[in-house]
Amino acid sequence: MSRTAGVVIVGGGVTGTSLAFHLVSRGVRDVLLLERTALAAGGTGRSVGIIRQLYPTRETSQMVKRSLAVFQRFADAVGGDAGFVACGALIGVAPAMRSKLLATVAAQRAVGIRAEVLDPADAARIEPRLDASALGAVLWEPESGYGDPAAVATRYADAARRLGARIEQGVEVSAVLTAGERVVGVATARGERIEAPVVVNATGLWARGLARTAGVELPIVVGRHPVFVVERDAAFGRPHVVYLDLAGGAYVRPETGNLTLTGSLTDDETRHPMDPERLGAAVSLDEAAPVLARTSRALPALAQARYRGGWAGAFDITPDWMPILDEAPVRGLWIAAGMSGHGFKLAPAVGEHLAALLTGAAPPVDPAPFRLGRFATPAAAGTFVASYLR
Ligand SMILES: Cc1cc2nc3c(=O)[nH]c(=O)nc-3n(C[C@H](O)[C@H](O)[C@H](O)COP(=O)(O)OP(=O)(O)OC[C@H]3O[C@@H](n4cnc5c(N)ncnc54)[C@H](O)[C@@H]3O)c2cc1C
């Protein structure tokens, strides 16, 4: 059995669906997205969905700003509800990081990001329940917040379909097919061959394995990042803002039903490799306890919250914790992976960026920092927190 497509996108998370939407929006015809299980079944469906803007590089700052603008008017730009809640985000840093924060935020203002560095005592103005006594500064991003990653992927897919893209779920790509140094299509696990001059690998945690079928080696490790859920007690009052405590090493973001999602910002996920098939596996209270202790130090009123469970998430991590958005050495094979824990908030800009590159247009953001070739010279090993401040 054989059929054809102009572009095959492999993977139906926020990356693949955003790209499908942006390609058809640019008039590209014959776009086919293949998802092996269901839309948002991968990292997207396990994401915490925080949209914060603090990034250490100009290009990623530009991307997150472009993405935020889409989340703010998602119904008009894409259609439907992204679940975006602009509750604002606070980011606390240790005294030693204060000057770095000031310099980074000054550079970010140049690209139009709205953020204010507060003295720790002034953070109470935003979130009176915060214990900022050990901090050196607190960043306030009034426009940040969180969204619903599965809804965003679904809405992008709906919009792409309306504009003519074909989206097929339950179709696993078993190999990228090549002839010489060119891509010629994909083979599926059900024995089908789909001829296509352009294939995009947007398979997130599975991207390294799929790239290997075309002889392409991606510097991506899959690192475990568990998420824990607690229920705030009635005395807690109104929901807290998104808070990322870079000094204490934990984050919290509110969820409906008086729930709070929380996780660690101190563990180096690259040291906890995980089989992607374990995504969503159960976690234990023992594992949660040290993280909950840190969130309770940051927001003491959370000490009364009840543990409700959690899940094993994972990030597709590159050596510098920034995405790969580039054509592989095999012509026609594009990589949209290695999102390194940023893929939700960047998804609108990532889709826009890749659609420009694939159609030979100038991308809105300098593509150099996202090229695969940047790893030809070994990068100094980064950390997740270094993707906020360097
Ligand atoms: C616990 C956790 C918390 C996070 N928190 C945040 C956050 O707060 N803010 C933020 O911006 N980002 C966050 N992220 C990161 C972000 O959610 C991800 O980077 C993003 O969702 C990845 O989307 P994706 O489309 O690239 O990959 P995925 O969502 O993993 O999609 C890849 C898809 O490819 C499919 N697939 C795989 N192999 C094949 C194949 N051979 N054939 C067909 N289909 C295939 C999979 O089934 C999957 O649906 C978090 C991630 C996790 C796991």
From TrEMBL:
Keywords associated with the record: Oxidoreductase
Keyword Oxidoreductase: yes
Gene Ontology CC terms: cytoplasm
InterPro entries referenced in this protein's UniProt entry, alphabetically: FAD-dep_OxRdtase, FAD/NAD-bd_sf
All copies of domain FAD dependent oxidoreductase, residue ranges: 7-357
Name of this chain's protein: Glycine/D-amino acid oxidase
GO molecular-function term, one example from the UniProt record: oxidoreductase activity
